[in-house]
């Protein structure tokens, strides 16, 4: 090949210069661009056909669904069954069997009170007295208690045994005389007024003064909710009439300020010291 013609000669002819062009490779490479274009055109045509076909199929499906939705379906009412009214069975109450009356023994809830307020009738029964009897609010004659069960209605009518109200907490019941208080009873005006009252009204007994008797006399008395005093007693006696004078001075003091427990006025057994000194 002439070197002057190389720039104008295609690359394929340069490669196959002085070679057998009729073998086939030369023809394949020469027509490569044409074959590639045809292949791409074929692939593009098939792809476009499938895309258009899918769109047409989808549109046809939507039309079919629209036609189905527009269809009106009328349902006939099912025949009603006749309602069957059931009459409830009447169950007769079981009649309680009559039982014999059982002997009862009164048993009150024990209360703690001072010895001078104890009443013999409040003493609880002995264990032996309760062996064959039921506990109740009253004592009655009857058959021995052998463990027989008594229907609830009979218990209610005859009030056999203690009720639930008998087992109240101690703080729910206010004792007649408080054992402990938040504030003790005191003379109106406090200790200063009590001292002035003693100075104006206390008389030193002549017998005690002549005998040189002096000291403290403790007096006990009850102050109720209204401040009234009662049951005045001397807890010790030094002699010479000092105990009698101490009781007299308490009686003369009239009303006191009541004791308090949890903010409420209560009846309380107050103790007060009265001092006798010879000057």
How would you characterize the overall build of this protein?
- The chain is an alpha+beta fold and 279 residues long.
- Among the domains are: 3-30, no CATH class; 104-172, no CATH class; 190-276, Fusion Protein Consisting Of Minor Coat Protein, Glycine Rich Linker, Tola, And A His Tag, Chain: A, Domain 2 (2-Layer Sandwich), CATH 3.30.1150.
- The protein has 7 helices and 7 strands; from the N terminus they run H-H-H-E-E-H-H-H-E-E-H-E-E-E.
- It has helices spanning 11-15, 25-30, 32-69, 152-158, 190-201, 206-211, 242-252; strands spanning 104-106, 134-136, 215-223, 229-234, 259-261, 264-266, 268-276.
- A 3-stranded antiparallel β-sheet has the order 4-3-7, with helices on one face.
- The longest helix is centred in the first third of the chain and has 38 residues, at 32-69.
- Mean pLDDT is 76; it is low at 154-158.
């Amino acid at each position: 090949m002439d070197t002057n013609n190389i720039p104008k000669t295609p690359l394929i002819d340069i490669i196959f210069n002085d070679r057998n062009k009729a073998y086939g490779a030369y023809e394949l490479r020469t027509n490569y661009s044409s074959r590639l274009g045809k292949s791409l055109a074929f692939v593009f045509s098939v792809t476009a056909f499938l895309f258009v076909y899918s769109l047409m199929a989808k549109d046809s499906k939507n039309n079919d669904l629209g036609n189905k939705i527009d269809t009106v379906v009328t349902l006939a009412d099912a025949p009603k069954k006749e309602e069957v009214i059931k009459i409830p069975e009447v169950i007769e109450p079981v009649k309680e069997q009559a039982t014999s009356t059982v002997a009862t023994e009164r048993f009150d809830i024990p209360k703690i009170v001072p010895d001078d307020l104890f009443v013999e009738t409040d003493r609880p029964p002995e264990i032996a007295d309760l062996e064959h009897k039921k506990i109740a609010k009253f004592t009655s004659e009857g058959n021995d208690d052998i463990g027989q069960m008594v229907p609830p209605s009979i218990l209610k009518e005859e009030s056999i045994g203690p009720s639930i109200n008998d087992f109240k907490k101690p703080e729910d019941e206010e004792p007649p005389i408080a054992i402990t208080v938040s504030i003790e009873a005191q003379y109106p005006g406090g200790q200063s007024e009590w001292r002035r009252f003693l100075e104006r009204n206390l008389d030193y007994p002549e017998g005690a003064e002549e005998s040189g008797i002096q000291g403290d006399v403790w007096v006990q008395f009850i102050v109720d909710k209204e401040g009234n005093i009662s049951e005045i007693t001397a807890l010790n006696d030094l002699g010479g009439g000092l105990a009698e004078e101490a009781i007299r001075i308490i009686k003369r003091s009239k009303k006191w300020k009541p004791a308090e427990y949890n903010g409420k006025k209560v009846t309380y057994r107050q103790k007060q010291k009265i001092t006798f000194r010879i000057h």
